[in-house]
Design a protein that fits this description.
Blueprint (H helix, E strand, L loop, with lengths): L1 H6 L4 E5 L2 H13 L4 E5 L5 H15 L4 E4 L15 H28 L4 E6 L14 H21 L4 E8 L5 H9 L1 H9 L13 H8 L10 E4 L7
Parallel strand pairs: 1-2, 3-4, 4-5, 5-6
Helix pairs in contact: 3-4, 4-5, 6-7
């Protein structure tokens, strides 16, 4: 998504936990003739997330487009076995990491009387309970992301700010490649239920993010757009 935004002329600031991968992506952005900045931070830790967002706002703002793309399934155990600490960790990683940046950058857009675009990466897991896997904190958090998207969309529509969610199915990101190494049975079972017969490739999600960031989507807000190869159609 960061590269797709750069392809259409955006300067990009990216956050993440690993300096090396951030800088690799930043160099690809700069190779496209755009500016790129990196901030090493764990956005799943609420205080660190808030501090990073405030610093970005104050040093690089105003921000016109916000993409909240943080999340992972922390556990795959049974509901009854999950420790409370793990539940809280998952909620912070998958939900609070969306709420905090949205609040900070949305408030700045409103204060500056600037229209803006906010794109939250939810999941089809916010719409269904996945087969053959536990860790229902993930489904719960992603469902909350979708509802939070709707709430922010209606509250901020008068300010010219659109808020939408993308609900991906299985995309072979670095995280899911790691999942495939640990639990190949889960990935294989998932793919068997995808009508297109394959997982998504990360570059395929970029154009949808660009659309939601563009004037072409000026009348789209509060939407949760599914991108899953047909998985949830069966």
């Amino acid at each position: 998504m960061a590269l797709a935004m750069a392809d259409v002329g955006a300067d990009v600031v990216i956050t993440g936990r690993t300096a090396e991968t951030l800088e690799r992506t930043a160099e690809e952005i700069r190779a496209r003739g755009r500016q790129a900045w990196t901030r090493v931070v764990d956005m799943g830790v609420p205080d660190a997330c808030e501090q990073a967002c405030v610093e970005i706002r104050d040093t690089l703002g105003p921000i016109d487009i916000l993409v909240n793309n943080v999340g992972n399934r922390v556990t795959s155990g049974a509901i009854q076995d999950e420790p409370q600490a793990t539940w809280r960790q998952s909620i912070d990683l998958n939900l609070t990491s969306v709420v905090v940046p949205t609040r900070i950058f949305g408030a700045a857009m409103i204060a500056d009387a600037r229209p803006g675009r906010i794109i939250n990466i939810a999941s089809i897991s916010g719409l269904i309970a996945n087969r053959g896997i536990g860790g229902r904190d993930y489904e719960t958090a992603k469902a909350a992301v979708i509802q939070f998207t709707r709430c922010a969309a209606v509250d901020w529509a008068p300010h010219g700010i659109t808020v939408n969610a993308i609900c991906p199915g299985l995309f072979m990101t670095d995280v899911n490649r790691e999942w495939n190494e640990r639990r190949p049975d889960v990935i294989e079972a998932f793919v068997r239920n995808v009508p297109m017969g394959r997982p998504g490739n990360p570059p395929e999600i970029g154009p949808l993010a660009v659309y939601l960031a563009s004037q072409g989507s000026s009348y789209v807000t509060g939407a949760a757009i599914v991108m899953d190869g047909g998985y949830t159609s069966w």
